[in-house]
Amino acid sequence: QAHFVESGGGLVQPGGSLRLSCAATGFGLEYKTIGWFRQAPGKEREGVSCISATDYSTYYADSVKGRFTISRDNAKNTMYLQMNSLKAEDTAVYYCAAHTTRGYCSGTEYTTPYGAYWGQGTQVTVSS
User: Fold this and answer.
1) N or C end of the chain: which has fewer CB within 10 A?
2) pLDDT (tens digit, 9 = 90+) per residue, 27-63?
């Protein structure tokens, strides 16, 4: 059965780093748009970052630019989100997504895609 195994969340102090991973099983990541969403308590889900498989455009939310980096390792069939200089406002459940559907990932936004594979979510808590 196709699914993601998501890992890497946890508790970290402000200014610290975490790397989230999503390992895909039962399907390939190589030709799919990949991305990350997050949802904090009481807030709407937010598109954090994506890489389009159509034109390779990359998006980062303004709040994470310069601190987060999205990547994939096709040989390991795994995608990553490297998060540096973490802030309290980065606290949320983070979800990975992969999809072939178009029109959701561009250089200016990442909206919730239809027909995506989703990770189960991993909690990131930034607190001293």
Assistant:
1) N
2) 999 999 999 999 999 999 999 999 999 888 899 999 9
